[in-house]
Amino acid sequence: METIYGWRGKILRLNLTSGEIQHQQTAAMAERFIGGRGFLSKIYWDEVDSKKDALHPDSPVIIMTGPLAGTSAPSCNRWFIGGKSPLLNPQQFGLGNVGGSMAVAIKAAGLDGMIITGKAEKPSYVHIQDGKYKVKEAAGLWGLGIPETLKCLTAAHGKNSRAICIGPAGENQVKLAIAMSDNNACGGSGFGAVMGSKNLKAIVIEGSQKVKVARPEELKKINQQVRSLIEGRVLMDPNIEGIELVKRSPCFGCPSGCPRGLYLHDSGKEEIRKNCASAYSYYLWDKLQNNDESTAVPFLVTSLLDHYGLCGQEINNLFSFLHESDKLGLLPEGKTGIKLSEQGTLAYAEKLLDMITYRKGFGDVLAEGTIRVAQSSGKETAALLEKRVTQSGFNANAYNPRFFITNAPFYATESTSTMNQLHEVSFPMMKWTMWFATEGAYSPFSTDVLQKIAKKFW
Fold this sequence. Notes:
36% helix, 4-stranded mixed sheet
């Protein structure tokens, strides 16, 4: 038998309704579609019924890795969760690009990915261990927040196991619900709701198999070269009051030691944060409430998002929509049941997120996502989204092609955020801005360097 390098050679197919288990060989797709997003896209276009709702039992949760996942190759251990997104409008292909170390576990269990369809009769989780598959009851886990669920699963299956799970928002099929794994790695586009619609609380994976590399010495040299390029990199920690870095917590295979870390909050909470959108979901509203001064509240709001399993980016869209609606008097308190004037306080966030997660009152409307709540509330509210999100619900604020024209093809062709590619544009621009503003004192990224990059890559 020919030795396979990188790929494990098979994809698990599991039907939760019938319990049927099959394996699909990856060799037929590997050369053309490579893996990861490529496999996920092909399976989606070949198999997903355009007429069936994203939360229909036949609509799959597709989880895929790339051929370099599970190896020492830098930045190659991410994985995708995708299928038909219930959050996008209209429902269409969507995915979440996820870190942590779940991709390593999937490959160690002998798989390149998995396709899960059907609906379990009662709350369940899937346990995968080196080619053995079981669907187990999750009655004791249903209703728990994500951090608590992950702790329970680790206690049951050991510290070497890895899990992806949902919180109460996913259980209640809130369309902005996420799925989350170790190291606070999360996948958006509403696939927490898709898992919830299947009564699927979690997927737990254990594996002991190694991924074979064709030319390990060459890979080692490439790894060393990549790491040499980022030596001395200055990491930016979240600019949130009341937190202290305990230790760095990069995802598996990260060459840069990114700013993801374990932080101690004034309240005594120790949680993982990264200097990105989720950490700042409530930052602007906190400052507005406190005369442009920030407090420690945004950290606690992110804790709530993680507990419930809600997408920080989409919640930020909702916060913005509600704020603008309040300024124009478009959503009176009598209709929403919340005091929009209190936005920025911890109490406001606690009430609003509880309403959304458990679909209470106006929270049931908000649980459908920003673009649907805006459209359902009238033409004036729908118009508020024109500058913030695309028609499908793709956030178009920070990376707006009106600011970065290079991003225009992504917004024209992609239904969900292509964050890696967007960062390849915005990061160089940020470094050039620092060079320009400080006359080169804080960045070597001159106009000449920027122009060379633009000519070659953009």
